[in-house]
Amino acid sequence: MIISNIVSLPIERISLACVLIMILALTTWRADLRLARPLLIASLRLIIQLSLVGLILEYVFEINNFLLVTLIALVMLLVAGREVSVRQKYRVSGRWSYGIGTCSMFVSSFAVSIFGLAAIIRAESWWDPRYSIPVLGMLLGNTMTAVALSLDRFTTYVWEGRETIEAKLMLGHSSQEALKMISRDSLRAGLMPVINSMAIAGIVSLPGMMTGQILAGNSPTDAVRYQIVIWLLIAVGCGFGSMLVVQMASKRVFDERERLRTERIYKV
Amino acid sequence: MLKVEQLQFLDWHALSFDVNSGDCLGLMGRSGSGKTLLLRAIADLDINEGKVSLDGLFRDDVSGPEWRKKVGLLTSESKWWHETVGQHFKSSALNLLSDLGFPGESVLSWKISRLSSGEKQRLALARLLSRSPDALLLDEPTANLDPESVSLVENVIHGYRKEHSVPVIWVAHDELQLNRVSDIKMSMDEKQLKEHV
Predict the structure, then answer these.
(1) Which chain B residues contact residue A166 at CB under 8 A?
(2) What percent of chain A has pLDDT over 70?
(3) Among partner residues A170, A181, A255, which is closest to B68 by beta-carbon distance?
(4) Would you say the ipTM is above 0.85?
(5) For chain B, what is the domain count?
(6) Taking CB atoms and an 8 Å limit, are A174 and B68 in contact across chains?
(7) φ and ψ at B51, to 5 degrees?
(8) Which of A3, A19, B72, B85 could be stapled to A217 by a disulfide with Cβ–Cβ 3.0 to 4.6 Å?
(9) CATH no. for residue B191?
(10) Domain extents for chain A?
(11) For A259, which residue in chain B has the nearest alpha carbon?
(12) Three-state SS across chain A?
């Protein structure tokens, strides 16, 4: 059910929110917190980026072309993959770093989004940009954090625990055995935020997408259904994405003789 | 027999030597001369080239972990990852523990965080021997020990190598100790191995 009388936001009322930001910036500037500049730049970026996205999406929805949707999805994927690799304190050397991030983002977001679109949402054409781009965007945004966190913890733990890993290897442990505790802790670190968010969804906070749909005039029941599906897909994406990223990184930090190759990890 | 042929790591000269089963090769040399690197290369922990075989079995014919189970490498600084001593042992190894001066079964419930460096070193030896390696690569196995514990460790290692007839390489700075424990002595110098007379 869609309610027709949606309140649309004119520019002058949006600028009221901007005035609040200016007040915050001014306050932090007077308190010498050195936050005013990044705050203003971030706000400006937000406004410009989202306005541009709005324009692009209007255009994409109108053209409704499969190739264009694919192209946009690919760009989003590559940017997310890069984001995963640059968020690391210790990076896996060479092109692997980027490849590991992108590959796991592909599994965690791309594959899961396609499943959600084609099997669950089932719009008239499954790639309909009105559904596919927001769904992929939500999945990429959320799983990227989990994947990046898991990888960051993994490389940090391996670097800091390298002597213990080698001590296990000396006793004849396989690389997988030697990394068991590290892999488990890295996965936990990546997945706990999602698990916690799911557990409190609707009680402490209303999830963003659901809020958006309700504000846009959709019935809460529909909004809730979409939100449930999206959260479950996000959890699946985070889980498989983090597992894959840890698996790929563990392959990389050992060689074929299962020797620990710490020189393949470097501190940024 | 542990046979090392043309073993090369970093820019060291290629090294070749044998240690017969039941024999002990004492290895000396200044700090930084590469003794530890040699043991690590034999255990295949670092990149290296050359052939190493144990009782006719070539290293490259088995996986890395399988090889490292056979050649037990003991470092002077041991690492522990579980909370108690017992969690690090597959079998209880009570005889070994009492031979090394520990009071029977109760040691298995000791907390790792409360061990002294000397206790850790002796327990690391027990942990290694309880896995029955077919060769021993010992890197200063008595570095943190008092004289009494040193002789316990020397006796246990001697007993193990004679009973199981395993080749041993023993790295130490103490020449008197190597005179006691080894059958042949060599020293690492200028990136090569020289027989010590």
Answers:
(1) 45, 79
(2) 98
(3) A170
(4) yes
(5) 1
(6) no
(7) -110, 135
(8) A3
(9) 3.40.50.300
(10) 8-63, 66-267
(11) B45
(12) CECCCCCCCCHHHHHHHHHHHHHHHHHHHHCCCCCHHHHHHHHHHHHHHHHHHHHHHHHHHHHCCHHHHHHHHHHHHHHHHHHHHHCCCEEECCCHHHHHHHHHHHHHHHHHHHHHHHHHHCCCCCCCHHHHHHHHHHHHHHHHHHHHHHHHHHHHHHHHCHHHHHHHHHCCCCHHHHCHHHHHHHHHHHHHHHHHHHHHECCCECCHHHHHHHHCCECHHHHHHHHHHHHHHHHHHHHHHHHHHHHHHHHHHECCCCCECHHHEEEC
Interchain pair A174, B69: CB under 8 A: no
Beta-carbon separation of B69 and A172 below 8 A: yes
pLDDT in tens, B132-190: 999 999 999 999 899 999 999 999 999 999 999 999 999 999 999 999 999 999 998 87
CB contact under 8 A, B63 and A164: no
Q: B7: domain range? A: 2-196
Task: Give the nearest chain B residue to A180 (CA atoms).
Answer: B81
